[in-house]
């Protein structure tokens, strides 16, 4: 069921479902009577599944994925029918929690945030990152942690960073019914071992390592893979060689889809900006103007407006109350 918060009647729900992406829809909404709306609105976007994603890859229809970290961003990521997948990425650690790297994120924090995203999300397929250390110790512990992400975090699949060394655990999880999205190329959790955030697969050996990781993880059962920060020639070549969807971030236009951090694309993150980030909106500016205007209005005494933005009490009851307090000043003070 397609859920929309904030609305109380069927007509406004239908109008909202039409959404800001459809200028034509908006015009129609204004020109027809509410009871006619439901017949004009397109059906809500169907729930995206692994099968949907595999069909899209086959049909060469680019797949879209954005990150989300909490209930409102889960809703935001679901606000367009053009978004297919949500990633509760461990970039959460930096973008949302203010840590210096993704390695500081705990499993508990990830579960806390992923479950909020799941409550806000509608049709997109939800993937949750396994935090650093949560899939490193043993198969048993990895399975226990992935299970918690599914059961408590609402994950429909988990993602883990690494190459062929993960093939065995990817196979195990897949067999148990926990779909795994691989993450190859630049793996930010290994930032220290890689001596920084560097484009991967630029040398002959490097390119062949990333390709062999992709093939090994596909064979192990990964249903899709993130390919991060590799030359675009390699991004395309890997996509041609594997059958599962490749979702690129800094891997060029030749992958099956693209993923980007939500705060990067809407412009609320003003930290480091990798080359592959495009800012599609400047929400930070709008947000900060709003906050400043609130400050100005309170300082200037124009907020809140006494009638429009506050409550009042029956004058007789107010009088009784003041008398009960032994106070003879009966005038309303505000
Ligand atoms: N806001 C945000 N966006 C992200 O995409 C992101 C995060 N945070 N945090 C976790 C990881 C870290 N990521 C990063 C971070 C930096 C570069 C980066 O600066 N890359 C260099 C490559 C330079 C080269 O080797 O040529 C660049 O300049 O783009 C890439 C990915 C991607 N992830
Ligand atoms: C950058 C994307 C792919 C990611 O893994 C994250 O947001 O954590």
TrEMBL record:
Catalytic activity: (6R)-5,10-methylene-5,6,7,8-tetrahydrofolate + 3-methyl-2-oxobutanoate + H2O = 2-dehydropantoate + (6S)-5,6,7,8-tetrahydrofolate
Keywords assigned: Pantothenate biosynthesis, Transferase
Enzyme class: transferase
Pathway: Cofactor biosynthesis; (R)-pantothenate biosynthesis; (R)-pantoate from 3-methyl-2-oxobutanoate: step 1/2
Pfam families in the record: Pantoate_transf
Sections of the chain in a coiled coil: none
HAMAP family documented for this protein: PanB
Taxonomy of the source species: Eukaryota, Fungi, Dikarya, Basidiomycota, Agaricomycotina
Gene Ontology process terms (BP): pantothenate biosynthetic process
Species for this entry: Coprinopsis cinerea (strain Okayama-7 / 130 / ATCC MYA-4618 / FGSC 9003) (Inky cap fungus)
Family the UniProt entry places it in: Belongs to the PanB family.
Gene Ontology CC terms, in alphabetical order: mitochondrion
GO terms, molecular function: 3-methyl-2-oxobutanoate hydroxymethyltransferase activity; magnesium ion binding
Enzyme Commission code(s) on record: 2.1.2.11
Designated name of the protein: 3-methyl-2-oxobutanoate hydroxymethyltransferase
